[in-house]
Amino acid sequence: MKNLQDILPLYGVEQDMILSKMGDLTICYQLELPEIFTLSNAEYEAFHQTWVKAGKVLPEGCVLHKQDWYVQERFAGDFEKDHSFLPLSSERFFHERPYLAHQCYLMLTLRPRNRKSASSLGSTLLRKHIVPVETIDPAFAKTFEGICSQFVRLLCDSGFVAVKRMVGEELVKLVNRYLLLSEDGVLRDLAFDKGIQVGEKHCELFTLASTDDLPGYCGSRMDYEKYGTDTVKFPIGFASPLGQLLGCDHIYNQYFFIEDSASIIKQLEARKKRLQALCTYARENAYAREAVDLFLNEAIAEQRTIVRAHFNVLAWTEDTTRVQEIRNQCSAAFAQLDATPKIETVGAPQIYWAGIPGNAGDLPSNETFTTFSHQACSFLNLETNYQSSESPVGIRLGDRLSGRPLHVDLSDEPMRRGVISNRNKF
What's the pLDDT tens digit per position in 102-155? Predict the structure, then answer.
């Protein structure tokens, strides 16, 4: 048994940035995404292209870690007001109705230039490292802050997302929340001998870390057959089945590693030559050589940004009898993407450890795959759940997924946002 303080990969919070013991600097943001079922085909494509363009701003050695939290909560009725009979009955009816609350965090990490890529064997969970001298240089942090500001500005200018930078105590609470999988502040033990167990919570980890497990098609959106017809297609985000539509407590982690494209192309060229020499031994080698050749041609001709990507879903439950149910739900969610998830066992501790906010650079490189940023951005979660309006006027409607009551302004707020151009009240 080890003390968490002795092996925690984070040094602390300095200048509103998380500093890891490997010398990585991380700036965190909280995102407000568009509500689910509210975007059109063109808007999904525009939002997708916004992420692709913003990714081009990030320098070599940067890691984009997007973490979406989905936690079961219950609606709390307001019984403090002096309600009449009908409003009081409404509050009683909806009181403690379960729904899936969503919070989205974006963490941008800059690794020192001479930092070696992490592996399952060299994780900070297993060994300690010396902080590089480059991290101590104040200009290193200033330059990184300027880059992050450009990245966030591109997202905000799209009009689809609102961004708030997290500072000071907010960063500490975010790290603690991940380590405890709760916000109650109660300390819990971490156990990795039988999978991942955080106190009374039994976790299951599903990953997409190999091109063999990816779907044959990916895009900015997909058709949601439940609300569509044969003639009218209803679009949702491509990764929505792993987000708001997965009805259990879970975290959806998305990682992009910005690498030196020239170095990756050089490695692929060498791999292509090896496959060429082995073509006579197996037909599979010929197909693999052709696939590498097509990838290189597209990278050069289309000037694509090459990244290393990794996606995983960490789901948990306190009821051991529901573990198999959680596995079935997650497997079905991946099947909707036509993807094949891998249930992690041996490598689960290192992947979970890399999910700590500020420690994304410690994700093992053998758990990533090489792809273009256009395809990688297709797996980003682009939506959140429905939100109540802050307008004082409106009516109460129900969330179509959970039935949670929401206060909705149908006239004034849509006019201010430009959703409608006329106000019909009667």
Answer: 999 999 999 887 666 666 655 555 555 555 656 666 777 888 899 999 999 999
Start-to-end CA distance of the chain, whole Å, equals 68
* SS3 assignment, position 230: coil
d(CA 58, CA 305): 11
Tokens 């900015």 belong to which residue? 220
Contacting residues for 120 by C-beta, under 8 A, at least 6 apart: 347, 350, 364, 366, 367
Selection from 331, 314, 161 nearest residue 241 by Cα: 331
- Alpha-carbon distance of 396 to 399, in angstroms, equals 10
Tell me which residue of 136, 190, 152 sits closest to 11, measured CA to CA. Answer: 136
User: Among residues 367, 423, 363, 369, which one has the least CA distance to residue 391?
Assistant: 423
Q: How far apart are CA 290 and CA 305, in angstroms?
A: 20
Distance CA 404, CA 360 (A): 34
Q: What are phi and psi of 124, to 5 degrees?
A: -65, -10
pLDDT on residue 239:
94
d(CA 270, CA 292): 10
Extract the tokens encoding 386.
């429905």
Whole-number pLDDT of residue 150: 94
Beta strand ranges found along 33-160 (DSSP E)? 62-74, 98-110
Reduced DSSP (H G I as helix, E B as strand, rest coil) percent helix, strand, coil of the chain, to 5: 35, 25, 40
Q: What is the predicted pLDDT for the residue at 249? A: 94
The tens digit of pLDDT for each residue in 26-70 reads: 999 999 999 999 899 999 999 999 999 999 999 888 999 999 999
Spans in the chain with pLDDT lower than 70: 1, 114-137, 423-426
What is the pTM assigned to this prediction? Answer: 0.90
Residues contacting 2, CB < 8 A, separation 6+? none
Q: Which helix (H) or strand (E) holds 329?
A: helix 323-336
